[in-house]
């Protein structure tokens, strides 16, 4: 009698199911990582492209708005003939600022108001000319004889008004930890640029309190940060033993770095010639306080602060030599942004694995 063959239907065993789920999960993780890489690559590439595009204009020229061609900086004659003042929008110790019009476009005209500070004004113009880049407000023209500077207009104004801007219905979608951290990255990028500028290591001296710092920077319509006021940028030259002092008056308060404060106690009256000079690490000390303003109190901002805790603690080292460089701070900020975007894209993945 022949034996009939037995056909056994094979089924997946229960232990195979988790293996398949894990494989699918890993595939999803790899896909999301690829998408994240492409996003961040596009983001950083776009920043580089902006820098390149602005660099296409030779020194002494600018590109304005959607115009592709470069134009030479406007001369005294051109400014007098073609620029029309509209209204005064600000005034500081050195200059008065006017919203103006040139060829039906809004521009900013700055004029010296205090002749005793003309050296500061001319220093600011010198810095503006030499440091043109994606980090610095665009120079359109100037007239040294009349102490006049013409720059690009940014309707959102200085960083003082950031929180008010983010509460305008049009910009509420920008009021996220992600966008705020990107603004902080822009700010640190400016500091890094000044510390490694074509002129050498420059110190941002107009920064004795948070409000003063914020007034030195502009918020662009596409939510980037530009430095606007370059009147007080002394040069550090370590090889020549050259350090700096920000002004000739005593500085007080926790916002300024310890080495900027009078070191000899209350019993010894302040004397400028006895005040020790210092270097660019004073800017590093201030980064955590400025970034804290940028991050605000939106959902997720405390998580960002937690990830930045160690680098901010390093910025607050009493010994300037122990503080990180602006490049090291910038690298950390970018790593935190990448990490948090990845975690936001894949919530709970770590626990699932």
Automatic annotation (TrEMBL):
Q: Specify whether Chaperone is a keyword of the entry.
A: no
Q: Name one GO molecular function term.
A: protein kinase activity
A cellular component term, taken from the record's GO annotations: endoplasmic reticulum membrane
Superkingdom per UniProt: Eukaryota
Its topology with respect to the membrane?
Answer: Single-pass type II membrane protein
A single Gene Ontology biological process assigned to it is:
protein O-linked glycosylation
What Pfam families does the database record attribute to this sequence?
Answer: PK_Tyr_Ser-Thr
Q: Which keywords annotate this record?
A: ATP-binding, Endoplasmic reticulum, Kinase, Membrane, Nucleotide-binding, Signal-anchor, Transferase, Transmembrane, Transmembrane helix
Enumerate the catalysed reactions. 3-O-[beta-D-GalNAc-(1->3)-beta-D-GlcNAc-(1->4)-alpha-D-Man]-L-Thr-[protein] + ATP = 3-O-[beta-D-GalNAc-(1->3)-beta-D-GlcNAc-(1->4)-(O-6-P-alpha-D-Man)]-Thr-[protein] + ADP + H(+)
Q: Which PROSITE patterns match?
A: PROTEIN_KINASE_DOM
**Record-annotated Protein kinase domain positions:** 83-353
Question: What's the Enzyme Commission number for this chain?
Answer: 2.7.1.183
Q: Which residues cross the membrane?
A: 20-40
Which InterPro entries does the UniProt entry name for this protein? Kinase-like_dom_sf (IPR011009), POMK (IPR039318), Prot_kinase_dom (IPR000719), Ser-Thr/Tyr_kinase_cat_dom (IPR001245)
The record's function comment reads:
Protein O-mannose kinase that specifically mediates phosphorylation at the 6-position of an O-mannose of the trisaccharide (N-acetylgalactosamine (GalNAc)-beta-1,3-N-acetylglucosamine (GlcNAc)-beta-1,4-mannose) to generate phosphorylated O-mannosyl trisaccharide (N-acetylgalactosamine-beta-1,3-N-acetylglucosamine-beta-1,4-(phosphate-6-)mannose). Phosphorylated O-mannosyl trisaccharide is a carbohydrate structure present in alpha-dystroglycan (DAG1), which is required for binding laminin G-like domain-containing extracellular proteins with high affinity.
Q: What is this protein called?
A: Protein O-mannose kinase
Q: Which organism is it from?
A: Zosterops hypoxanthus
List the gene name. Pomk
């Amino acid at each position: 009698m022949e034996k009939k063959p037995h056909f056994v239907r094979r089924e997946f065993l229960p232990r195979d199911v988790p293996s398949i789920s894990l494989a699918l999960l890993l595939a999803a993780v790899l896909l999301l990582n690829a998408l994240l890489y492409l996003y961040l690559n596009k983001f950083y590439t776009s920043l580089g492209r902006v820098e390149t595009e602005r660099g296409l204009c030779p020194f002494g020229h600018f590109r304005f708005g959607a115009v592709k061609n470069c134009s030479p900086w406007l001369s005294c004659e051109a400014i007098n003939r073609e620029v029309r003042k509209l209204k005064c929008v600000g005034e500081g110790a050195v200059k008065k600022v006017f919203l103006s019009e040139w060829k039906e476009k809004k521009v900013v005209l700055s004029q010296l108001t205090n002749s005793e500070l003309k050296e500061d004004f001319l220093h600011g113009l010198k810095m503006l000319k030499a440091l043109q880049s994606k980090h610095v407000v665009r120079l359109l023209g100037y007239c040294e004889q009349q102490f006049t500077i013409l720059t690009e207009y940014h309707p959102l104004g200085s960083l003082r008004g950031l929180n008010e801007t983010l509460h305008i219905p049009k910009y509420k979608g920008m009021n996220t930890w992600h966008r705020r951290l990107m603004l902080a990255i822009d700010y640190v990028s400016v500091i890094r640029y000044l510390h490694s500028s074509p002129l050498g290591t420059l110190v941002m001296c107009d920064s004795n309190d948070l409000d003063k710092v914020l007034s030195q920077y502009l918020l662009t319509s596409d939510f980037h940060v530009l430095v606007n006021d370059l009147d007080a940028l002394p040069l550090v030259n370590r090889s020549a033993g050259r350090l700096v002092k920000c002004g000739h008056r005593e500085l007080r308060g926790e916002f300024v770095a310890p080495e900027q404060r009078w070191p000899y106690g209350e019993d010894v009256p302040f004397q400028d010639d006895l005040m020790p000079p210092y270097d660019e690490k004073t800017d590093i000390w201030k980064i955590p306080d400025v970034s804290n303003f940028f991050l605000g109190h939106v959902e997720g901002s405390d998580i960002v602060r937690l990830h930045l805790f160690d680098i901010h603690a390093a910025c607050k080292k009493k010994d300037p030599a122990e503080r990180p460089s602006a490049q090291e701070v910038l690298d950390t900020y970018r790593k935190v942004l990448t990490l948090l975007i990845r975690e936001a894209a894949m919530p709970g993945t770590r626990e699932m694995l």
